[in-house]
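At this stage, I wrote out one protein, both as residues and as discrete backbone shape codes, and that material follows here.
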Amino acid sequence: KLLKIVLSFKESIVGRLRYLFNEPHGSFVSGLLFGGSASLSDNLRDDFSRTGLTHILAASGVNVSLFSVVLLHWLLLSPLGRRKGLIVAGVLLFFYIIAAGATPAVVRAGIMAGLIILQLAIGRQARMVNVLLLTLAVMLLVNPRLLLDDIGFQLSFVATSALLFFHPVVEKWFEFIPNTLGLRTAISSSLVAICFTLPILIWDFGQVSLISPLANAIILPFVPFLMAVALVALVASILFLPLGQIVA
């Protein structure tokens, strides 16, 4: 029953987004927030694939991370206080993971975000390496076949590990690029993630997008802003529908 309620609520939100933004923009925005590109045309999905941008339409760690950061910031500043705010954040994070499809990438990011919330609750600093390894251990304990059978799981952990261990070093190589709108971070993180996931992509899909680093560098800095505007439009439409349409 709980699962049905959460998914029904998600479907109502997706329906409103498609009404506010029209197609194919509505499906694109709902893909940014919850993942999924099934509603897009085959040609448009092929365009995303050829430019190496399919990942922004898949529920991923980026969605969960942004959701967690924004939600935590808002709740910790709310009248709820620190303790209740962290509890509410954990509960809402759980519901968001379900709404986003609970794919391995989402579950991975959800567990890591949950551990960060636990870190704030108990007042102890977590080492991200330990958080990543604990998350890996928990997921493989539940389903060991993820390691060999699930491409999303492989890509998620390889990309996260690469960003954790190598991105700080690689980003220093791009200090000549201004970090306006996170441009330098977008370029360096894209290159790191693409380089380390390249063997998996070639092995499983037999192709790789050569324009992907450039496309990601241009697009990624705008993704958080797109998600934020979509949420503002959604909230505005609940308060007053024409206002939501104006924002959209």
About this structure: Residues 68 and 113 are 7 Å apart (CA to CA). The chain has 14 helices and no strands.
